[in-house]
Write a structure and sequence with these properties.
This protein has two domains: 86 residues, 2-Layer Sandwich (Nucleotidyltransferase, domain 5), CATH 3.30.420.40; 149 residues, ATPase, nucleotide binding domain (Nucleotidyltransferase, domain 5), CATH 3.30.420.40. The chain contains seven helices and eleven strands. The two termini are 16 Å apart.
């Protein structure tokens, strides 16, 4: 089985693939203070609850946007699963032409998402990833990764309202029944949920205008399912896109895909 790990700023998502099929996946909070041993015991324990053993792991691939944890996970995977992980970078064969002036500035998760989406759809794409930051990636029909946009994530915006104001409460991110809020909580939920959907639609529309072509718009990330139904432009939600991209890049690097 392939161990695929995506280290994000808020969560670490990892899964196991057998013959291109996702057999199971887990999500844990990102904690840069944890050691390789702590993560190793955590991962091994989660595997054992599913009746799996570290000997079932035959390879590993790692994407990280948290530099302080990249080495930690390389050490952990080597020590606990006895494999040296392939670490995603712009130097890998992504199946894309990256036209960014400095490709190494692009977050590895964005590269993985773009690679997975283009390999699947083979058309012009805008990929919206609702993570700690909300990122937009633009890929042309001919497979050029041309850039994108980065906005504060929905969780960051909600936390800012709570922490930077004297009277606004901390709220759950859920859809209110009406746009016009009837109290403080539903007013905040309206501004966040519907306001973010509007931001997504406006950015997507402007990106399509600059690309000069219509694109397929897909969403991924933990909050994609919350925003997508309110968006006019998002056409599909792909919750496992990053893990799928990691599996694809591992096979491609080994000459298998």
């Amino acid at each position: 089985m392939l161990l695929a790990v995506d280290i994000g700023n808020s969560n670490i998502v990892w899964g196991l693939y057998e013959q291109q099929s996702l057999q199971g996946h887990w999500r844990v909070a990102t904690d840069a203070s944890r050691t390789a041993d702590e993560y190793g015991l955590l991962f091994r324990g989660l595997l054992e609850t599913e009746g799996l053993h570290k000997s079932h792991i035959t390879g590993a691939i790692l994407s990280s946007v948290v530099p302080s944890l990249t080495n930690t996970f390389e050490e952990m995977i080597e020590a606990y699963f006895h494999h040296i992980p392939l670490v995603v970078s712009a130097d890998l064969d992504l199946g894309l032409t990256v036209t960014y002036p400095n490709p190494h500035e692009i977050g590895s998760d964005r590269l993985v998402n773009a690679a997975a989406a283009y390999a699947h759809y083979r058309t012009g794409l805008i990929i919206v990833d609702f993570g700690t930051a909300t990122t937009f990636c633009a890929v042309t029909k001919s497979g050029e990764y041309v850039g994108g946009a980065i906005a504060p994530g929905l969780g960051i915006a909600a936390d800012a309202l709570y922490s930077r104001t004297a009277k606004l409460p901390k709220i759950d991110l859920s859809r209110p029944k009406t746009v016009i809020g009837k109290d403080t909580v539903t007013s905040m939920q309206s501004g966040l949920i519907f306001g973010y959907a509007g931001m997504v639609d406006e950015l997507v529309t402007r990106m399509q205008r600059e690309l000069g072509q219509q694109t397929k718009v897909i969403a991924t990330g933990g909050l994609a399912s919350l925003i997508a139904p309110e968006s006019r432009t998002i056409q599909e939600v792909c919750p496992d896109l990053t893990l799928e991209g990691l599996e694809l890049l591992y096979r491609r690097t080994r000459g298998e895909g």
